[in-house]
Amino acid sequence: MTRANIPQSAVLSVEFDGHIATVWLDRPEQRNAFAQDFWVDLPELMDALGRDNETRVVIIAARGDAFTVGIDLKAFGPIFMSGGIDPDLSPAPVSEVGRRRAMYEGLKKMQRTFSSIADCPKPVVAAIHGYCIGAGIDLITACDIRYAADDTTFSVRETKIAMVADVGTVQRLPQIIDPGRVAEIVYTGRDFGADEARDMGLVSRVFADAATTYRAALDIAGEIAANSPLAVQGAKAVLSAGRGRSVEENLDYVALWNTAFLHSNDFVEATMAFLEKRPPKFTGE
How far apart are the C-alpha atoms of 196 and 92, rounded to whole Å? Predict the structure, then answer.
């Protein structure tokens, strides 16, 4: 795949810096609220970047003064008012079971949007600023690394609008932070700042402003991209596979992984570079 094959979007834009791809949430006038296009375009884009051999790390950042204010309530208003069913759905469900099935399928499609981040074989770094509320939490919990600007306001806002967060937060957040903290912020729906997010482990580091946060994301992405992509992507695969498994199962999994992938050209290059006292040049082969 060449980079010319990266799909275009009206609500997302992509910039490349060597082996680093930045996916920009690009509806700044709407504070990057997620309208219908977003839910279709993001998984297509993440799939394309996952298959792009030149891309080794993905950053997700945002234009404007907010990372995202979550679902675009104006765009989804008609759907919410019709009981979660797209009023333009054709043919329209004629039974209660049909309506509930259509709603279920719609929710599963939205869940796959953020799962496309978690399932991307490349590491994904979130550079967050301004507001990150509602579905924004679903998005960042699917990322591998999260950095935030000092001005960031977080909230699992769904509770405040009489619904249960249903596209990833409730499932992924307990894997990141203490369950008691999960319960606190989910049940209350309250706002909390970047320092508290760092203290609870939701974000790794906090920076002075959006620009500094993005530069830090580029720096860590650069460090990651300098390593063998086979090793980095293998580490992500092993970490992901380890969730919910015992230590013994995880040890067996990584033994099988390295049996299959250890003897690569990159491994030989790393060894030769060490012996020759030079930086390695990894190709991902």
Answer: 46
